[in-house]
Write a structure and sequence with these properties.
With 152 residues, this protein is mainly alpha-helical. The chain is built from five helices and no strands. α2 runs antiparallel to α3 and α3 packs antiparallel against α4.
């Protein structure tokens, strides 16, 4: 029974590899979106506001790809092989480390998404409603991060 439990940790390599592949796919899509928005701005003389929203959407995709990559790397490092060499800032020694890194990137994604919503043509009431929602989510993440850091 012990051997089965010890070997079962290698099952986590499947979602880890899938996350890395998914992250790479999202990064490629994000790079494509950046290229398209640059072409639309320069070649097709698209409105600058539209280009800014397109660029922010592309950055959002790039950040999401980064999050998915970090999840894949973190799962692999935690469960499968701790000897894999990652940069110091990406070393993950616990689920709390992974969670902290994810919260940081999620906060950035939420901020960029809100900025894209703000730049887009929306009524002040819509912006305030979304802003309050974004603020509530960010406050919840901050409280969660703070509360879990107290356990250390």
């Amino acid at each position: 029974m012990r051997t089965i439990l010890e070997k079962s940790r290698y099952l986590v390599s499947l979602p880890a590899i899938a996350s890395v592949i998914g992250g790479i796919a999202l990064l490629l899509i994000g790079v494509w979106e950046v290229g398209v928005s640059i072409i639309n701005l320069v070649v097709h003389a698209e409105d600058v506001k539209v280009s800014v929203v397109e660029m922010l959407t592309a950055v959002d995709t790039l950040l999401l790809g980064t999050v998915v990559l970090v999840v894949g790397y973190g799962l692999y490092e935690l469960f499968v092989d701790q000897s894999v060499k990652f940069p110091a800032w990406l070393e993950i020694s616990s689920l709390d480390d992974l969670k902290t890194k994810l919260i940081g990137v999620v906060v950035t994604i939420i901020g960029i998404s809100f900025l894209g919503f703000l730049v887009d043509k929306n009524s002040p009431t819509d912006v305030m409603s979304v802003g309050i929602g974004v603020g509530a989510v960010l406050l919840g993440l901050a409280v969660f991060s703070w509360a879990t850091s107290l356990r250390k």
